[in-house]
Amino acid sequence: MSIGDMLAATVPMARTLRLEFTETSPERAVVHLPDQADYHNHVGGPHAGAMFTLGESASGAIVLAAFGDQLSRAVPLAVSADIAYRKLAMGPVTATATLGRPAAEVVAELDAGQRPEFPVAVEITREDGAVTGEMNVVWTLRPHT
Length: 145
Fold this sequence. Notes:
By secondary structure, this protein is of the alpha+beta class. The chain has helices at 3-10, 12-16, 48-67, 103-111; strands spanning 20-24, 29-33, 74-85, 93-99, 117-126, 131-143. Helix content is 29%, strand content 36%.
């Protein structure tokens, strides 16, 4: 099962919004939100909540791709998130997530008995390439107790 399939199966909101996970690797995750009238805002573009879910889902996809081999000993959890809406988003939008720290550094902290935190940067773009939003999500790997 791919990471996108797993997230669609286990995260009802990702399924509800019909998010398309087009790339999921430890280096980058790309998730697409199709244009859907049911999730529009008052100006006809994707609702801010849908864009937040898109960005958070992209960040979760890269976390699973980078740290999926750690799930037997830790659970990934979002600690905080912020989003800035830069330009009007109309039509389909795409979120691209990148890790803000090397995965090996994060795993080394986990190995040392710590609960590592790490940022994931997300850029949300519309079809013409314009950046409509920027998001930062801080994640942790909480060790199983």
